Amino acid sequence: MYNETLINQIRERFCHVDTCPYQGSRVYFENAGGSLTLKSVVEVNTRLAGIPDNQGRDNPASHELVRIIDQSREDMRTFLGVSEGPVFIGESGTELLFRLVCAAVLGTPAGGNVVGSTLEHPATVSASKRWCKIAGKQYRAVVHDNDSATVTAQDYRAVVDGDTRVATIIHTSPVTGISVDVKAVVKVIREVSPECVIIVDGIQHAPHGDLHVDDYDIDAYAISAYKVFSRHNYGFAWVSPRLSTLPHDHLDATPDDFWELGTRDTSEFACFSEVVNYLDWLGSQFTDSESRRQRILAAGRSIHDQEVGLVDIMINGADGQKGLCDMPEVTVIGGHDNSQREGLVSLYIEAIPCADVVRQLNQQGVRTHVRKNDYFSGNILEPLNRPSCVRVSMCHYNTSTEVIQFLQALESIITLVANKNRSRGSGYRTRYRNTG
Ligand SMILES: Cc1ncc(COP(=O)(O)O)c(C=O)c1O
Fold first, then answer.
1. Which string of DSSP letters, residue by residue, matches 158-177?
2. Which ligand 1 atom sits closest to the C-alpha of 170?
3. pLDDT means over runs of 10, the chain (436 residues)
4. 92 CB contacts (<8 Å, ≥6 apart)?
5. Does residue 346 sit within a domain?
6. Does any ligand 1 atom lie closer than 6 A to the CB of residue 201?
7. Cα(121) to centroid(ligand 1), Å
8. Whose CA is nearest to atom 12 of ligand 1?
9. Same domain, 251 and 357
10. Residue 353: which domain range?
C-alpha cells in the first residue's frame, strides 16, 4: 500500500477528500457513484468556462482550444492503450453506449442475435433490447453466477453462436464490484462468431486503472468522466476503425468516422487531460520510464495494489479491529475471497434494513450507498432474493484508517441492534426481516 508521504500527496490533489461541504467530516466510500474530483480538473474547468471563443477560427484563442482538444484525444488514447480508431466525447456513459449499440445493431447484417449478460448496467441492456426490436434481431442474456457475482468466458460460450452479430460485455459490475475477464470472453466470442461487433462498458473499471483496450480485440469501450476523477456531464468512447464508419448519427459534412454532434465544450477535453496528467504523476512515483503510457500503467498497478490492501483490511480486519469475515451477521456479495474484486464491497445484514445501515453509517461520518432491487440493481439482487444491499466503494485515495473507521461504525450498528433485539425479544429481527 502507499506510504504515508505518498498517500498524503495523493489526497492533497483531490477536492473534499475527507470533508463534505454539506455534512462536515466524513469518509468517502461512495466512489462507484462518483469518484472524488481532482482539484486540477476544477481549476482548468473554471478557467476555460470564461473563454468565449469557439473552435475552428483563425485567432489565437481558437487555436489554443483546438490544441487542447487534440492533446486530450491523444491523452485519452494513451489512457486506454489504443493505436487506431477515433475517440469521441458524448453527454454521459449511457448516451455513448446507446449510440454505439444502435450503430452496431443496425449496421451489422440482417437477422441473427445480440448477446449481453445479466451482470450489465441498464445502459447496454436497454439499448440492446430497443435496437434489437427495431432491427429484428434476437436479444440473449448470459446469466451471471450468483456466488462469484460475475460472468465467465464459458458462460458466454453457452449462449453465443455463429449468428451473434453484436456482443456487449461489462468490464466491472457497479453493484458487486467484481470484474469480468474481458480478454477471455472476447476470445470465446471470436472463436464462435469472428465478425461479431463487441462493445465494452468500461465505466466502472476505468477508475481502477490497468486498461489495455488494444489487447482486448474489441470494437468499442465507453468511459464516464465523473467516475474517473473528472466532472459530471460527459464521457468518452473509443471505436474501432470498422465500427467507427458504420452508419451513425453525424453531420454529412464531417468525416465518416466522426461521432461528435455539434460543438463540444473544450473544458471536457481539458479536464480529462488533467486526469491523465495526474495518473502520469502517480506512475512517475514508481517508474523512471520515459513513456507516458508506461507511467500510466505503473499508476494503474499501484492503484490496484492499494485497493487490494484496502479490501483485505475490510474483509480480514487489522490493528485489532475485526473485519467483515469475522462479523457473522454480515453477508458479502461475491464472497470474502474474490480475486476479481475491484475496490468495492456490497454487503447486507439480515436483521437490519440496508437503508438503516447506510443512514447510521452516515450519522457516524461514513458515506456509503444503498442499492435497491430496482431497474439499476435488480439484475444482481433479484436472483439473490434480496430487497437491497449496502454498497461500500473505495478508491486508491482511501486509507486503512478510513476502512477501520467504517468497520468500527458497522460493528457498533450491529451491536446496537443486537442489544435492542435482546431487550425486545426477537421482535426487531422479525419486524425488519426482508423489508429492505
Ligand atoms: C457500469 C456502468 N455503466 C453505465 C453507467 C452509466 O453511466 P452515466 O451515469 O455516465 O450515464 C454506470 C453508472 O453508474 C455504470 O456504473
1. TT--TTEEEEEEESB-TTT-
2. 1
3. 98 98 97 98 97 96 98 98 97 98 98 97 97 98 94 97 98 96 98 98 96 98 98 97 97 94 96 98 98 98 98 97 97 95 97 97 98 91 93 98 98 92 64 42
4. 224, 233, 234, 235
5. yes
6. yes
7. 7
8. 203
9. no
10. 4-30+297-432
